[in-house]
């Protein structure tokens, strides 16, 4: 692939694939509403464009982390139902009401502020209640469930939904999943008739026991691996090509990159690509003589990163290409159909979520499709 000269990396977001992923998950979760988690700029894909594509595919319920993200989705989708996972920010109730945003309430302080605003305006504004069943992040403690129920019963208020979050859903056989499921059942018993939500991408894909009335897929929508140790069935959404700046030669015994952490053990052909840690290509993807790093796809082969990744460039060993060497301006695939975000994440010692949400580099974004079914 030859890139347009002078334009740097090219990040392609396949909105059609994003929509197909949502529809596939919606089939798996038949009987439950399938929401879409679009926080963190829709996992690095662009919250406005991706939300519109998911809406075109059929999604009507969206989860974001912050009110600012919620307002962005609201501007793009006037009829969307938007939950703010971070809850009710102090003093922001009027903003939520104006923007028709639903806080995911997880503390007594949040609850009192929200109920106070409902009383002040004489209207039961919608919200969700989040209970911590064992991850120790946001959420009411389990021993607060009865207190919460008694408080809202006195006012005749009911949330739109009760929810919790699994700590080990990516490991389906982990005992903590069953424990949290049982604890969530005890919460639901306190709120009979209220819709419930527990499943993220992994739980959606591995067990109907976790589906309840709404599922909340995130990483799987964007093509990332949700379940550890299983083949990822989701379509590729994100493809990133970066330009090759130069192809040079290195001699046996010479070192590559800062710190001289990689020494060539043969005469080598080296491609210098315009992609570094400032672009989200983590320094932990560097290749040393003791530890292999990441790989990129060039001219039909996976080629290894050698030496430390710099701020703006990385060095790729293309010796195995033989005489079929790339030319300056040609593209190297960093993510895509041949190198997944999870391949890179595994090499970096992290997860695909972090790779995707770090896509803030010097790229030219290109959106493909719009989420609608072809006519």
From TrEMBL:
EC number assigned by the record: 5.1.1.1
What are its GO cellular component terms? Answer: cytosol
Question: What is the enzyme's class at the highest EC level?
Answer: isomerase
Binding of substrate: at which residues?
137, 311
One of the GO BP terms on file: D-alanine biosynthetic process
Q: Which PANTHER family match?
A: ALANINE RACEMASE, ALANINE RACEMASE, CATABOLIC-RELATED
What is the protein name for this chain?
A: Alanine racemase
Tell me the gene name: alr
């Amino acid at each position: 692939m030859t890139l347009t000269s002078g334009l740097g990396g090219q990040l392609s977001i396949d909105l059609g694939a994003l929509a197909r992923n949502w529809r596939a998950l919606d089939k798996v979760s038949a009987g439950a509403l399938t929401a879409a988690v679009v926080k963190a700029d829709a996992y690095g894909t662009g919250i406005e464009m991706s939300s519109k594509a998911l809406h075109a595919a059929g999604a009507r319920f969206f989860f974001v982390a912050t009110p600012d993200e919620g307002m962005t989705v609201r501007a793009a989708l006037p009829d969307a139902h938007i939950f703010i996972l971070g809850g009710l920010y102090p003093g922001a109730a009027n903003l939520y009401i104006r923007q028709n945003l639903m806080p995911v309430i997880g503390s007594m302080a949040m609850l009192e502020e929200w109920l106070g605003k409902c009383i002040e305006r004489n209207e039961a504004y919608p919200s969700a209640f989040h209970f911590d069943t064992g991850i120790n992040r946001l959420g009411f403690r389990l021993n607060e469930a009865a207190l919460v129920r008694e408080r809202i019963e006195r006012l005749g208020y009911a949330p739109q939904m009760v929810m919790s979050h699994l700590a080990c859903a990516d490991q389906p056989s982990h005992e903590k999943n069953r424990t949290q499921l049982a604890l969530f059942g005890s919460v639901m018993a306190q709120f009979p008739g209220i819709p419930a939500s527990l499943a993220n991408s992994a739980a959606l894909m591995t067990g109907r026991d976790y589906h309840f009335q709404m599922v909340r897929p995130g990483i799987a929508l964007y093509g990332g691996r949700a379940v550890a140790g299983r083949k990822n069935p989701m379509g590729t959404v994100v493809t990133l090509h970066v330009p090759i700046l130069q192809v040079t030669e290195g001699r046996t015994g010479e070192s590559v990159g800062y710190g001289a952490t990689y020494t060539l053990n043969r005469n080598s052909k080296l491609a210098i690509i315009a992609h570094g840690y400032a672009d989200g290509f983590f320094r932990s993807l560097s290749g040393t003589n003791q530890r292999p790093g990441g790989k990129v796809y060039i001219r039909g082969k996976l080629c290894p990163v050698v030496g430390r990744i710099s701020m703006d460039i990385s060095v790729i060993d293309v010796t195995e290409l033989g005489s079929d060497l790339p030319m300056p301006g040609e593209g190297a695939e960093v993510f895509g159909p041949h190198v997944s975000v999870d391949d890179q994440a595994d090499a970096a010692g992290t997860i695909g979520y972090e790779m995707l949400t770090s896509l803030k580099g010097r790229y030219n974004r290109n959106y493909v499709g719009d989420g609608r079914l072809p006519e």
